[in-house]
Design brief:
Strand content of chain A: 15-25%
Structural class of chain A: alpha/beta
GO molecular function (chains A, B): 1,4-alpha-oligoglucan phosphorylase activity; thymidine phosphorylase activity
Largest sheet of chain A: 6 strands, mixed, barrel
Family (chains A, B): Belongs to the thymidine/pyrimidine-nucleoside phosphorylase family. Type 2 subfamily.
CATH topology of the largest domain in chain A: Pyrimidine Nucleoside Phosphorylase, Chain A, domain 2
Oligomer: homodimer
CATH class of the largest domain in chain A: Alpha Beta
Organism (chains A, B): Billgrantia kenyensis
CATH superfamily of the largest domain in chain A: Nucleoside phosphorylase/phosphoribosyltransferase catalytic domain
Keywords (chains A, B): Glycosyltransferase, Transferase
Largest interface: A-B, 51 and 50 residues
Catalytic activity (chains A, B): thymidine + phosphate = 2-deoxy-alpha-D-ribose 1-phosphate + thymine
Distance between the termini of chain A: 68 Å
CATH architecture of the largest domain in chain A: 3-Layer(aba) Sandwich
């Protein structure tokens, strides 16, 4: 006896959930277990879902089967359509998952099956978490990380730009204000290299490239429009459609984030699978190192570089890794509007432009330009600087902004959040440390990235001499309550260390 | 601005879930993440919950906060009551969980904090799964297993019977029909030992002791009534209130079951924490070994025994382990009514009583009787047999049945499910193997334990000579469709091996 399909408008966040009423005949007859896997069939379509039991007919009636948003869309039939439900065989890759939980090494086939099931939302949150933790603890070796990355790149869409090279850059993250992409992409695209950069929104940081770019232009563009735009302008800074590239990645992130799992294996697979699926042939990877960065020592950074190099090479991706100074934020602003101001100051060669952001962006752009076979090793930096100083990078940026959909932005009067306060130096001395995580937290408490104009504006940097009472940074908050949260947080620990110049512990990095 | 509490009648299965409408001002203002942890406060009470986002005002309105059943009960305020919600600090034990995920050893304090948070439903399904898998892969050492078991026994209620010894028995499971508890408890209680056995329902098996006992008597009794009953009759076979004993165990099982995780560490902690919380001082543990049992070899059984012994001794529990023959089901029936028939046949000294069930029960009861300081080692078996043969065990059973609430049961005409078929020997020979898992699966497909009269009735056992076409077992199904499922399963593989007598591979076990 079929049930009638109904939609249960709960966002189960990349888990297919089916809802049955506890008094439903089928539920009682089949002896289903809560959280067990069921197969839902209609119109020749079939999906797997995790069963939830409901005691309220306002959610599902006795003769209905409810599906969560994700599952409803995946099944693709209308509300009221008859559906049948049965105990499901577990997803085919579950034996492989069990072997990983038992500490065994997985084969290429195992990881393909697992990734395929994950991308099709056949895993429950419990199974997903088990996979993520088993990979973390069972220590994927580098071959397994390659198998995983390769499998992730193969499910979902895969772009082919029909030219060579297709370049991209990526930073492993953790450094507030580090908006180099918004300078590197215009420079590289102005030179003529194809650079289809898909940007992400902030997950735990005060702003992602997509959030900052959104101050200047629309970023949510349909997949196909994005492709046309990139072909015309040689680059873009947009968000959208990325979930069709390496879709398993987004599903895994949904459980990695709440657990703060960010292991080397997961990071490599996540980054490289997206880049390969996006059709990139060359990638410049930025690994910042610093006492409050994701990577805290040079030996750790080198190990991570080797791992990226091994997997990229197996995937046929040309990879250049730079290890950079992650001891403090890059640029002055932390938060969408403040960062957009920094970027536009650099692009317009404004006298107040933050030099560290300019310099780092030029160095990265220079290395990327050298992916062009016609550019001699060592010449990239000079060419990048010429493109920036001559205004060609600004011109390219303006073209991309117009193509994505321009938004009003006044560089001289950016719209900052109204509730401000300054954090002052408690004593005279030299700034010898800035805690990236602390400042990111203060910027988030102030309302970033949700409130575009909220964030932190740095007024002193490592190595600067400050007098007692001199402002170290200014916080912009959208609401009085957020100002007070941010203020309390900065009172407990401002994130700044002040001492003597010789206490500065600089990393010996490339740049 | 507080929201109004509403109850969302979804059984989230031991996870506190809070529901906010996507258009709720608070959701938008706070920048909550899907699946993030929130703290819900009302009336001085506070609980942690995982946030789900809803797009339907029939589930929660724009000015409401919904709580899942578990969470609603835990918070303990009425619908409509104002509640406030904020981003929650993660549970205090999360740093310890992270360390376990990173492969570190946990301290006693770490495990106390983790178990406390789990029992209070402060963990999301993702965090719970991470803990379970990390323990599996990170290999809890035996000290950590003791810390875990001890912590689990300490949260929730803990019974004190104010006498000594308080005895119990437990089987690690996996052997269909193995209903020895329903014989051992009346024998031991008839002798006068206090035996407060809490029984469980089937999780993945065709019947648990509580399901079989429920054919004869009510088993769902309030916690306090159970205590009185045990004091009067020296024993019981009931289910109920056990979730108040070692409550973290039930929460962990909710994620272990879908992953089929049944590691030695989890098994030891689960069993011993419940027994200690139930006030037992002495435990007899049955570890069946066989090619299709949970434990498949003697070395494995011995390792498991040592682990149980180590942890029990650290917890102050006297433990006697017996390793028994698990090469085939015990008794004839598999399924609630069929097993109840077997048990009552043994208790009434019926000529058809299955001798293997009688013998195993007497041996177990004998070993338990020897927990009595007044009984000489080796005398237990004879005393148990006297109690059974004299009818004193039956008398005790009847008293317990009446005390729990008698149900009508006709031993000569048990109510078996109507749709039957027999599985026949495909050739002449000697039965040399019976696959426990296969027969359990067939019994479940036939409808057990939901359909009380469904299951499998064994007509031949290992060592029996059979002719071609002679029935090996009979299947009773509640519905025609279930008969057909069970039939298909038995056609693919009957679960019986037939060959020569010398191919029988007997385990060299205690009994």
């Amino acid at each position: 006896m079929p049930l009638a399909l109904c939609r249960v408008a709960i966002d189960t966040y990349r888990e297919n959930v089916a809802y049955l009423h506890r008094e439903c005949d089928l539920y009682r007859a089949e002896g289903f277990q809560a959280l067990s896997k069921v197969e839902v069939r209609a119109n020749g379509q079939r999906i797997l879902a995790t069963l939830n039991v409901v005691d309220d007919t306002a959610i599902v009636g006795h003769t209905q089967l409810g599906l969560s948003e994700d599952a409803f869309v995946l099944l693709g039939v209308e509300e009221g359509h008859p559906v049948s439900v049965s105990q499901a065989e577990p997803p085919v890759s579950i034996p492989a998952l069990r072997r990983k939980i038992a500490g065994e090494r997985l084969t290429r086939k195992d990881l393909r099956e697992i990734v395929h099931d994950i991308a099709e939302l056949r895993y429950s949150k419990i199974e997903l978490t088990a996979f993520v933790v088993a990979c973390e603890l069972g220590e994927l070796d580098r071959e397994e990380i390659f198998f995983l990355s390769d499998a992730m790149a193969r499910v979902g869409r895969r772009l082919d730009w029909h030219e060579h090279p297709v370049v991209d850059k990526h930073c492993i993250g953790g450094i507030p204000g580090n908006r180099t992409s918004m300078l590197v992409v215009p420079i590289v695209a102005a030179h003529g290299l194809l650079c289809p950069k898909t940007s992400s929104r902030a997950i735990t940081s005060p702003s992602g490239t997509a959030d900052t770019m959104e101050v200047l232009a629309k970023v949510e563009l349909p997949f196909d429009e994005l492709g046309k735009l990139v072909r015309t302008h040689r680059g873009c800074m947009a968000w959208g459609g990325t979930s069709e590239l390496s879709p398993a990645d987004d599903v895994l992130i949904a459980v990695e984030r709440p657990l703060s799992i960010d292991s080397p294996g997961q990071m490599v697979a996540s980054i490289l699978s997206k880049k390969v699926a996006a059709g990139s042939t060359h990638l410049l990877l930025d690994i910042p190192v610093g006492p409050h960065a994701k990577v805290r020592s040079m030996p750790e950074a080198r190990r991570l570089r080797k791992l990226f190099e091994f997997v990229a090479s197996r995937m046929g991706l040309v990879l250049d890794v730079v290890i950079t100074d992650g001891s403090q934020p890059i640029g002055r602003g932390i938060g969408p509007v403040l960062e957009a101001r920094d970027v536009m100051q650099v692009l317009t060669n404004h006298p107040d432009a933050p030099m560290d952001l300019r310099l780092k962006s030029l160095r990265l752009a220079g290395r990327m330009l050298e992916f062009d076979p016609d550019i001699r090793g060592g010449d990239g930096f000079g060419i990048a600087r010429d493109i920036l100083d001559s205004g060609r990078a600004l011109e390219k940026m303006q073209a991309i902004i117009r193509a994505q959909g321009e938004k009003p932005f006044d560089l001289e009067k950016p719209e900052l959040a109204p509730h401000q306060f300054e954090v002052l130096a408690p004593e005279a001395g030299v700034v010898n440390a800035i805690d990236n995580l602390r400042l990111a937290r203060i910027a988030r408490l102030a309302g970033a990235p949700k409130a575009r104009g909220a964030g932190v504006d740095l007024l002193a940097r490592i190595g600067d001499r400050v007098e007692q009472g001199q402002p170290l940074y200014r916080v912009h908050a959208a609401y009085r309550s957020e100002r007070s949260f941010a203020h309390q947080c900065s009172e407990r620990d401002s994130g700044y260390g002040i001492g003597q110049a010789d206490e500065i512990n600089r990393m010996n990095v490339e740049f």
